[in-house]
Backbone:
């Protein structure tokens, strides 16, 4: 794989083209930080957008076939899909309403997804989901059995046509507006984890694992 | 408008139907808490999913025509769109890998979006965006002028066909797994705002407004 995606007619950033980023390192970093992706597919002329868990493994995305029957119908038979991951990093307060914005990093990946068929590849995808969400958890939890693997629908999208869009930094106002007496700047946003809540049915003798106690996004 | 959406073939929650919620109050609360929506549309057989700012006003969603040329082509001429809003509330750690999940609240709204044409309605939508992100900001910032309103693309989707999907609470394990010595519970997730960062070009004599200093999501 080359180090950058070649922007296609479909993935080149059209609006605010200076925010388009095409190197794999940036794209993969955004994908690895996102917890949830939004999968777009069409059924009988109606687009659907469904949030679901995912993980990147090498040069592909695995995502969970949640909303299963509809999504599976929508992505089967070689249909085109779009997987989008968005991280919101801040609220950008400009002096003018018009130049208010968000700082964000997003990735749009296009292509055809295929159902993962072998138990081995399903297991690897589940491991990637679990370890991505909470590194260390895979070895603690009960492993999937044959029946569960059969009941698990996982789709694979190769990362061949993708691009990122990134906005960072302070507001950009029109030149005359800098003279206005309006506070301007950025309010950073981030995801935080609260204190873990033990299941009432979890024996108090079972200690909270370090990966849960020290969880940070 | 009735107090509940009538689930259609397209919005009825198929997988995990017990998580489907159709009353407007729940749907609207999720929409009002979300900062960003994901807009799905199709162009030449390819679905696209684009994140953008939005606000609910009454029984409609307004969203920003960012990624403008592609999205505007994709939603014009009465094409079907899907607007999805997702809030991730927690990581659900079950005893088995298979029953790991997320706590989340999401809304899927389907329909045809139309371009907002009048400056007055555009102004109202911009006001809703701004006040939703940061209540109090609208009156402080410089108001949009005629040229800026012309350059702003805003789309309106009436909320007629929509549903929510909500997962809350502890993990649900298979009965025999409750005997396993595996910590189980939920790690709550939330969005937090950091300390506001003043634009270097913002005069130190301009005080940080209370709505920015006290910002909470």
Residues:
């Amino acid at each position: 794989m080359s180090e950058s995606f070649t922007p296609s007619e479909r993935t080149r950033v059209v609006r605010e083209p200076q925010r388009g980023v095409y190197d794999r390192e940036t794209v993969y970093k955004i994908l690895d930080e996102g917890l949830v992706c939004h999968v777009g597919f069409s059924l009988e002329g109606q687009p659907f957008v469904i949030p679901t868990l995912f993980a990147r493994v090498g040069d592909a995305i695995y995502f969970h076939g949640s909303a299963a029957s509809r999504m599976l119908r929508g992505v089967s038979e070689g249909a085109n899909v779009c997987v989008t991951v968005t991280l919101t990093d801040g609220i950008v307060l400009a002096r003018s309403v018009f130049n208010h914005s968000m700082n964000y990093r997003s990735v749009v990946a296009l292509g055809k997804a295929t159902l993962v068929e072998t138990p081995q590849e399903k297991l690897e995808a589940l491991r990637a989901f679990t370890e991505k969400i909470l590194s260390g958890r895979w070895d603690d939890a009960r492993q999937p059995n044959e029946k569960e693997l059969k009941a698990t629908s996982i789709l694979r999208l190769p990362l061949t046509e993708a691009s990122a869009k990134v906005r960072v930094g302070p507001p950009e106002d029109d030149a005359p507006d800098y003279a206005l007496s309006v506070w301007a700047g950025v309010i950073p946003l981030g995801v935080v984890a609260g204190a873990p809540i033990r299941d009432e049915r979890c024996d108090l003798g079972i200690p909270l694992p370090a990966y849960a106690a020290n969880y940070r996004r």
Chain B has one domain: 17-171+205-213. Chain B has a mean pLDDT of 93. The first helix of chain B runs from residue 24 to 33. The two ends of chain B are 29 Å apart (CA to CA).
